[in-house]
Structure formats: structure tokens, C-alpha cells
Amino acid sequence: MDNxxxxxxxxxxxxxxxxxxxxxxxxxxxxNLPEALIIQLLKAGTAIGSNYREANRAESKSxxxxxxxIVEKEASETEYWLExxxxxxxxxxxxxxxxxxxxxxxxxxxxxxxxxxxxxxKR
Length: 123
What we know:
Radius of gyration: 15 Å
Oligomer: single chain
CATH topology: de novo design (two linked rop proteins)
CATH superfamily: 23S rRNA-intervening sequence
């Protein structure tokens, strides 16, 4: 897979993750979870894809490195909020079942963007 194809696939993957986070947050509202918690997760979880897309359209290498750093931070924050929700033990069975793959994907995305960030800084 060439670099262009990798970027396109990762853009699609981060968009799919954002959509899953949106749907999860809609369900969390039905459970009357604290609104601040839902908003934080929603902002961070959807920012991964939008910022990655922006990074792919960076004007320079330094701009790309800066923007990919933002993506990495948003991925880390998303993982944090998902862990807080998980460790609070406040979800019903349906929400818990939705949460498990979100945590897995957030960890994978964080790992990917950490690697991309480190590699980009070395070049």
C-alpha cells in the first residue's frame, strides 16, 4: 500500500470512529450521564478525524508535524474519556457492549498517530 492509499484509508477509519463516537454519545444522553462528560468525549472523538484530514492537507512538513501532534493529543484525550466512562461503572449492558470496541479502536488510533508523529519528526 502506498502512502496516498494509507492516508485515505486512515481518513476513512477516523471518520468511521467519529461516527461511532457520535452514536455512542447520543445513547449516553438517553442514560442521563453528565453532559460535560458526553461533550468532552464527543469533541475529542470527532476531532481525531477532522484534524487528521487537515494534517494531510498541510502546507509544509512542520505544519504536518504540528497538526499530527494535535491528532495524537485528541486520540489520547478520547482514550482518557472512554476509560473514565468505563471505570465509573455507570453504563447499562448495551452501552458497555458499545464501549469495548471504542476503547480498542481509540488505543489503536493513538498508537498509530504516536508512531506517525515520531516518524515524521525523524525525517
